[in-house]
Amino acid sequence: MTSQPRRTPTGAAVLQPKVTDAITEAVFAELAENGYGRLAMEAVAKRAGVGKSALYRRWPRKQDMVIAAITDFSVPRVPSPNTGSLAGDVRILIGAVHEWLTHPLFARILPDLVAEAARTPALAQAAQRAIGEPRRALALAPLHRAMERGELPTDLDLEMAVDLLAAPIYWRISVRGADAEPGYLDTLTEFIVRALGATPVVR
User: Fold this and answer.
1) Is residue 191 pLDDT above 70, yes or no?
2) pLDDT averaged over the chain?
3) pLDDT tens-digit map of 99-138
4) 3-class DSSP state for residue 20?
């Protein structure tokens, strides 16, 4: 019996990347304009120029759609620097945090999402699993390398260390609404390196 060649899936079986990208852009625009609470799948579909079925083929509900969009935006923005020095790696990491928090659309979206997460434990847990944990894991790699080089103590509290890489910038940008003036990130790098108890490696 001769087997028939498999047909390439078409229609609903194919999730076209261009459509997904258009939907993601629409999600960000709707979040920036209306916030999470007022965001509707219908509005996203209309803005993206697709039918609602295109959304539901990808995500069963609004929360999943929003988390996917924010994850695709946020997690790849964590670099994995390997400059050979803790200070060099920290400067790159906090620079990336600054760019993430000051992105024109994301800067408008984040405060609303933080507030919504405080009211909705399921959203907070989903964001932590999909966004927070992967971002923190990526930031750990340069710290481990600094330990291997002898720059950082092996008993360093890594959870606290990762907090230090983002918390000061988040507080300044998102909570205080202050700018990071020229030289701020360089100065912050020095503070973080000293706070971590780093010992410069003599080569």
Assistant:
1) yes
2) 90
3) 999 999 999 999 999 999 999 999 999 999 999 999 999 9
4) helix
What the block records as the tokens of 12 is: 């609903």
Is there a contact between 101 and 110 (Cβ–Cβ < 8 Å)?
yes
Taking only the tens place, the pLDDT of each residue in 48-75 is 999 999 999 999 999 999 999 999 999 9
DSSP type of residue 151: S
Rounded-to-integer distance, Cα 135 and Cα 147, Å: 20
User: Measured between alpha carbons, how far is 143 from 149 in angstroms, rounded to an integer?
Assistant: 10
CATH of 14-69, one of 3.40.50.850, 3.40.1360.10, 1.10.10.60, 3.40.50.300: 1.10.10.60
Which has the minimum average pLDDT: 110-124, 151-165, 187-201? 187-201
Q: Can you give the residue ranges of every domain in the chain?
A: 14-69, 72-195
Rg of the chain on CA atoms, in Å: 21
User: Is CATH 1.10.357.10 the classification given to domain 72-195?
Assistant: yes
CB 187 within 8 A of CB 90: no
Q: What DSSP string runs through 95-145?
A: HHHHHHHT-TTHHHHHHHHHHHHHH-HHHHHHHIIIIIHHHHHHHHHHHHH
Banded pLDDT at 4 (limits 50, 70, 90): very low
